[in-house]
Amino acid sequence: MTNDNQSIPGDQARVSVVVDVPPEVAFRIFTEEIDQWWCRGLKYRIAGTRRGIIHIEPRVGGRLFESFENGSETKIFESGKVTVWEPPSRLVFDWCAMNFLPAESTEVEVTFRKHSVGTLVTVTHLGWSRIRPDHPVRHGLDTASFIRMMGLWWGDLMSSMRDHAAGRHHSIVRHPGEVPPPD
To answer: What percentage of the chain reaches a pLDDT higher than 90?
Structure first.
């Protein structure tokens, strides 16, 4: 980021998806049901195909972590800390890849905006300019290719969240006297 909060080239990947639920439900799905919609496999989880759980602790300072079984013990990898918790409109957390040094991190901002057919969920993963060009997390890719890869990665995740939201009936807070729609 520049001093005037403008992103610099190659600093961020942004992905948006519309989910057919109101913002408060979309926020809840993203945060409370993250383990259900977050893709599985080594591309998305440290546990790979092993049994594991991804969880966000719902508060500023809360952890984003993955826990998984490794032999006879449970391993926990903390990949982030919540820095902004504003349900149902905004969530921000620091993001650390498994191969980041303690001083290395990026930032993920997720916004939830009312849309004519539900909620527009936008993920902006930024701060990549702080990560050196030859860092292993970049997989040897030039900046443009790496940012494109991150956009596709988040696109896969947001498509999975959209599909998860579409396939479930979520409880929606109703006003007194309001009749729920037929199933």
So the answer is: 70
